[in-house]
Amino acid sequence: QKEVEQNSGPLSVPEGAIASLNCTYSDRGSQSFFWYRQYSGKSPELIMFIYSNGDKEDGRFTAQLNKASQYVSLLIRDSQPSDSATYLCAVNWGGAQKLVFGQGTRLTINP
Amino acid sequence: KAGVTQTPRYLIKTRGQQVTLSCSPISGHRSVSWYQQTPGQGLQFLFEYFSETQRNKGNFPGRFSGRQFSNSRSEMNVSTLELGDSALYLCASSLAPGAGADTQYFGPGTRLTVL
After folding, report:
1. Which of B43, B90, B102 sits opposite A97 (nearest CB)?
2. What is the dihedral of CA B92, B93, B98, B101, to 10 degrees?
3. CB contact under 8 A, B99 and A51
4. Coil, helix or strand for A38?
5. Assuming Cys at both sites, which of A21, A23, B27, B49 could form a disulfide with A74, CB separation 3.0 to 4.6 Å?
């Protein structure tokens, strides 16, 4: 089992719809979870972080965490073409200040 | 507040050479981590420094090393370069280790090409 798993996509969503990105992780000791967005040729940009079970909303973005199921998700509402990018799920492994990344989900928003 | 800065942005080296990359964290951030990104392996953790001490190290050979200075700036060094070391090297900084302060912000990266 990979440490952090994401569907690689590509995921194609029409403009204005909700994009749903999923991630599972294998380390039960991890406490901090992050979503980064990476445009082609650029470095990762922080979108959301979440530490507690439940939902966390920030504008059009909602992160969801379920530690019992070892599952993190990101919802993007009212998707825009500018949201087209690769989304990386990252877990602070065992609380050790070591981010372990999934392979990323490539998201395309179609106008 | 200025973000994480990395120099140089681009480097071309030949096999067998060595290279030093530099990272200046966000002001007030004391933890610096380094990552390697390649198309095949994705983003992989190299090492992390806090208060001039290496606290964590990833699964990379000893050719990869780093250090942190008292002003939290960090350098990483790769000796005896191999073709497979061609990658985007990313530095990330955070306030400190521990949930609540451990959010990492990435610099623009250094693109290293080994010929």
Report:
1. B102
2. -120
3. yes
4. strand
5. A21
Give ∠ CA B38-B97-A49 in degrees, rounded to 5.
65
Contact A58, A48 (CB under 8 A): yes
According to DSSP, the β-strands at A33-38 and A71-76 are unpaired
Find the helix or strand (DSSP H, E) in which B65 lies: strand B64-68
pLDDT tens digits for range B50-65: 999 999 999 999 999 9
DSSP letter for B29, please: -
Q: Which residues contact B68 (CB under 8 A, 6 or more apart)?
A: B32, B49, B50, B51, B52, B53, B54, B74
**Looking at CA atoms only, how far is residue B7 from chain A in angstroms?**
14
Using a CB-CB distance cutoff of 8 angstroms, which residues of chain B are in contact with residue A34? 103-104
Please check whether residue B47 is in contact with residue B56, taking contact to mean a CB–CB distance below 8 angstroms.
Answer: yes
- Cβ contact, residue pair A32, B99, below 8 Å: yes
